[in-house]
Design goal:
three-stranded antiparallel beta sheet, alpha/beta, 7 helices, Rossmann fold
Length: 255
């Protein structure tokens, strides 16, 4: 049974050698885990963005030794954050309850380092990915970029974050969070004119695989946010450019 930790361990923080960070990355681990789960991702970000502050917080609910989650157990005692263990309604309620704390955490870090949402990127694995997506929808402008690794999504989005580019990264063989579901989420965001990409790695399951990490860094370095095209071309011209922009940001399979 999960129990709330009023004073969870302090986040792991990696700061650049320069006095003031130029970017902020906040990484959220999966259910029943802790920040070290994301060490490969943190290392890749550190190498690619040497001027960034990288923060890896602990989940608010302790579920065991060195194991934390972002949502409490339901009344029946099952872990609402474990893929496949709870109904979509239970998972949605758990996410809704955890979102304000995530938003408060990110806003506090932005204030501390003097950075805006446009200079902020969020990333999450599994339950952490689900939470990040809900937070980006609930708080427009919270982050300029968001990375979702093997996310479990309880429902399709009703709106698309207008100021956030969303990058979904998934394993083709993920049985805990089937890739078909994330495909539905990506398609729904496209219908809502959201700025989203989907990359699928062959022969990869429910894991933070190196191929997905490498693609995430590539997306961060090369993908021009759709909002930037709109600002540069104007709303009338962006429709003509939309085909090429959407083509570079659509679904892609990694081999």
């Amino acid at each position: 049974m999960s129990r709330h930790s009023p004073f969870p361990p302090k986040p792991l923080i990696v700061l650049p050698e320069m006095p003031a960070p130029a970017q902020l990355f906040v990484l959220f681990h999966g259910e029943s885990s802790e920040p070290r789960q994301l060490r490969g991702l943190a290392s890749a970000i550190r190498q690619a963005f040497s001027q960034a502050a990288i923060v890896l917080p602990y989940g608010s609910f302790r579920v065991g030794d060195d194991a934390y989650g972002w949502m409490a157990c339901d009344d029946a005692g099952s872990d609402a954050g474990t893929p496949g263990s709870a109904s979509p309604q239970v998972t949605s309620l758990g996410l809704a309850g955890a979102v304000p704390a995530l938003i408060g955490l990110v806003r506090g870090l932005q204030q501390r380092y003097g950075l805006s949402g446009r200079h902020t990127a969020l990333a999450g694995f599994s339950q952490g990915a689900s939470l990040v997506l809900e937070a980006c929808i609930a708080q427009p402008g919270l982050a300029g970029r968001a990375l979702f690794f093997s996310g479990v999504y309880a429902h399709l989005p009703a709106v698309a974050p207008p100021e956030t580019t969303l990058h979904f990264l998934h394993g083709a063989d993920d049985v805990m969070a089937p890739v078909a579901r994330v495909g539905e989420v990506h398609a729904r965001l496209a219908e809502l004119r959201g700025d989203a990409t989907l990359d699928v790695a062959s022969s990869v399951g429910h894991e933070l695989h190196s191929a997905l990490i490498a693609q995430a860094v590539l997306r961060l370095q090369t993908c021009v946010p759709l909002r930037s095209w709109k600002e540069a071309l104007g709303e009338l011209e962006v429709h003509d450019a939309g085909a090429s922009v959407a083509g570079s940001g659509g679904r892609r399979t990694l081999h």
